[in-house]
Amino acid sequence: MADEDGAPLGFVILHGGVIEHLYVQPEHQRRGVGAALLARARAVSPGGLALWCFVRNRPARAFYAREGFIEAEETDGSGNEEREPDVRLVWRA
Ligand SMILES: CC(C)(COP(=O)(O)OP(=O)(O)OC[C@H]1O[C@@H](n2cnc3c(N)ncnc32)[C@H](O)[C@@H]1OP(=O)(O)O)[C@@H](O)C(=O)NCCC(=O)NCCS
């Protein structure tokens, strides 16, 4: 969790090198909070990180690309609950 004077700004949930959630409150986006949360995830999992992201989530894909993630695999969404095309993003140290 990232906070400013005790007020929550965002959080990351990491499970065995997989980012399950990364979220920054809209009013605090584009101020480096996401990058700071990702830095913590990298410290916990220095060998690498992976996650799934919806293809249509262009802001997040731009964010992860800037943070050195590569798009390793894309699906048509038939295998996920939302039936929404997604992409697996991977970062290796
Ligand atoms: C993706 C997310 C975590 C990024 O957090 P953040 O705190 O805004 O990220 P940072 O401030 O560290 O980095 C900002 C950079 O990411 C990219 N970026 C972030 N939002 C963007 C947008 N709307 N459009 C284009 N690029 C964007 C840009 O490279 C940006 O740098 P710039 O502001 O200098 O152009 C945040 O947008 C978010 O919580 N989104 C909603 C939840 C979500 O989609 N989570 C990811 C699910 S896979």
β-strand percent reads 35-45%
**Proper CATH architecture:** 3-Layer(aba) Sandwich
Shape: globular
Tally of individual helices: 2
Largest sheet: 3 strands, antiparallel
Order of helices and strands: EEEHEHEE
Task: Name every ligand kind in the structure.
Answer: coenzyme A
DSSP strand tally: 6
Tally of separate domains: 1
From the alpha-carbon coordinates, what is the Rg to the nearest angstrom?
13 Å
Measured between the Cα atoms of the first and last residue, the distance is 23 Å
Please give the share of residues in helix: 10-25%
* Poorly predicted sequence stretches spanning 5 or more consecutive residues: none
Structural class: alpha+beta
**CATH-assigned homologous superfamily:** Gcn5-related N-acetyltransferase (GNAT)
Could you give the order of strands across the largest sheet? 1-2-3
Give the overall pLDDT as a whole number: 96
The CATH topology label is Aminopeptidase
CATH class: Alpha Beta
